Amino acid sequence: MSLGQQLAPHLPFLRRYARALTGSQNHGDAYVRAALEAIVDAPDQFPRDVDPRLGLYRTFQAIWSSANLDEQDLVESRGPDVPEAIAQARLAAVTPRSRQALLLTSMEGFSNEDAAYLIETTPGEVESLVGEALAEIERQTRADVLIIEDEPIIAMDIETIVRDLGHDVTGVAVTRDEAVAQARARRPGLVLADIQLADDSSGIDAVKDILSEFSVPVIFITAFPERLLTGERPEPTFLITKPFQRSTVKAAIAQALFFDAATVPA
Question: Which residues carry this modification: 4-aspartylphosphate (predicted)?
């Protein structure tokens, strides 16, 4: 099997990680493309002594680190509407290294040992970085959350996670029309949306309707993430895979709110 064939199944999830890390589909996908170009240009430098997925993420990490992303890069990735001071204040409090450790373990499912390999540190330091990132991001970000989910047990679990993080839940909608109505009645600061809803309507369409009226960060929840991580069209920046771990939801919420100017503390 060629190297390309070995890496292909892991590319959607690398896009998920890159988008969550940068807060932007375009910016995240650009880093993924740069990593792939580096592999094509120098295939002999690809790590062959580890699992292909680890090698792929390690190559991405090298590209990310060498780019030396700073506060201005973050602002540019999100466009001119995001105040530079917000990005600078948050990045000063939560380092990219901490956020990498959090996303690698909680969202991408790497062990502390594998995450340590990826960011070139020790497993103990990874554990410390994850705790640091969660504590600081959760302290800084509070929001009213709209949950769009038609499975009662899943909706209850998400609601519990959201409230445990200190957020308020504006409502739980099970259809497209209900979601839009609830968003209009009480504007949320974050939307958590399933893809397939109770009346065969689409969570994606519900979100489009909501976003046509105002801007709000969105996290999609789906059993088929590969369908929304192709890099070929406008796609979600934040995506959670079903079945999910509570830590994954927490990490996604923290990261989505991290990049949202509306939640900056007073």
Answer: 194
